Amino acid sequence: MTLGIETHGLTRYFDDFCAVDAVDLTVERGTFYGFLGPNGAGKSTTIKMLTGLLTPTSGEISLLGRNPLEPSQAIEIKQRIGVVPEDLALFDNLTGREYLTFIGRMYLLSRDTIRQRSEELLVLLRLVENEKKLVLEYSHGMKKKLALAAALLPNPDLLFLDEPFEGVDAVTSRVIRDLLMSYVSRGSTVFLTSHVLEIVERLCTHVGIIMEGKLVEQASLEELRQGSSLEDRFLEKVGSTQDVSRTLSWLGGETGDTVDADPTESADPTVSVEPPTEDEESTL
Prior knowledge:
Radius of gyration: 26 Å
Strand order of the largest sheet: 6-7-8-4-9-10
Strand content: 15-25%
Shape: globular
Order of helices and strands: EEEEHEHEHHHEHEHEEHHHH
Structural class: alpha/beta
CATH superfamily of the domain at 1-80 and 158-167 and 189-242: P-loop containing nucleotide triphosphate hydrolases
Number of helices: 11
Largest sheet: 6 strands, mixed
Number of strands: 10
CATH topology of the domain at 1-80 and 158-167 and 189-242: Rossmann fold
Helix content: 25-40%
């Protein structure tokens, strides 16, 4: 089994808070791996450590069989991976084509290669008609597509996507899904974090679930769905359905006894409220 990502005891502390606690990931090459968890579970911290944006407190990382924590191997690995970070990290004062050119030069691609790939990406992602706009003028969905284009430009073997579908419309979501499925079909690897279970269930071949910094589940999607849905297994691992099913009292949940308040009575028993006089009523 050839692994695209492997970690042992991956841990990250922020002062006394343990955001990621001894996580052991195993991601085979050529898989679409969905990394799930509720808000604050440690998804983004994990992906930042895998991509070199954060240094682990302890633990080991292997990407494509190489150690990104070793300076002599780090540059080689970064040339083989693409990243769509949580905050996108785009340059607002460049056009989309200028931004892709900058990324291509950072990866030491030839000018002809940059020009050809940029054109294909801009056309495929429907950004070419806005190529004269600055990134500052882009909508959120357009920025997501440009970030994905930049990640795919160097033709990476491993792609990290942190919430790529958050805030995008249905058309953009479909374009991104089709592009990623084509990318994986050639044998490349995708590591995706998302809150949207439906997207993970539609795209991913393998799933990991993190809760309070701990990896509580890791298996193929087919194994996870045996006898139940992905949603049921997810809720089973991260919290009880009883907590999820709570509702507001006035929307059909349990209602308590209510008391009709007298508008002439004050909430403070030491303060009296007098009814308005005839003169006061005439001014209302």
